Amino acid sequence: VQLQASGGGLVQPGGSLRLSCAASGGIFGVMGWFRQARGNQRDVVATITRDFIEYYRDSAKGRFTISRDNAKNTIYLQMNSLRPDDTAVYYCSAQNYITPDNYWGQGTKVTVSS
């Protein structure tokens, strides 16, 4: 199983970024995005099921949108109105649809700064 995340970068406060994560080598249930800021633990940002049920952390509601293409095993995270406290390494995650195994991508860095 491989998860390939992309789309991070440097953006000014108030700007937008779109992250992508393509998974391969399996069939996946819940997929999602987590983030880890320097010195902090890894926290959930948003998740989405195969049936497109979405979950967001409170600080992401109204600003971020997670979406999914099951045919491509790919999820996206559209991030708008970015703030400096969104700065972190963003990781995508995917749960195997059949077993309890969970997989992680390599992370993509998002920096929000003027």
What does this structure look like?
- It is a single chain.
- This protein starts with a strand and ends with a strand.
- The chain has 114 residues and is mainly beta.
- Strands 2, 4, 5, 6, 9, 10 and 11 form a seven-stranded mixed β-sheet that branches.
- It is built from no helices and eleven strands.
- The chain is globular.
- The chain is 0% helix and 55% strand.
In short:
This protein is mainly β and 114 residues long. It has strands at residues 2-6, 9-11, 17-24, 28-36, 43-48, 54-56, 64-69, 74-79, 88-96, 102-104, 108-112. The chain contains no helices and eleven strands.
Helical segment count? 0
Helix fraction, binned, reads under 10%
Strand residue percentage: over 45%
- Rounded to the nearest angstrom, the radius of gyration is 13 Å
Catalogue the unreliable spans.
none
| CA distance, first residue to last residue | 37 Å
Structural classification:
mainly beta
Shape assignment: globular
Largest sheet: 7 strands, mixed
Q: Summarize model confidence as the mean pLDDT.
A: 96
Report the count of strand segments.
11
Order of helices and strands: EEEEEEEEEEE
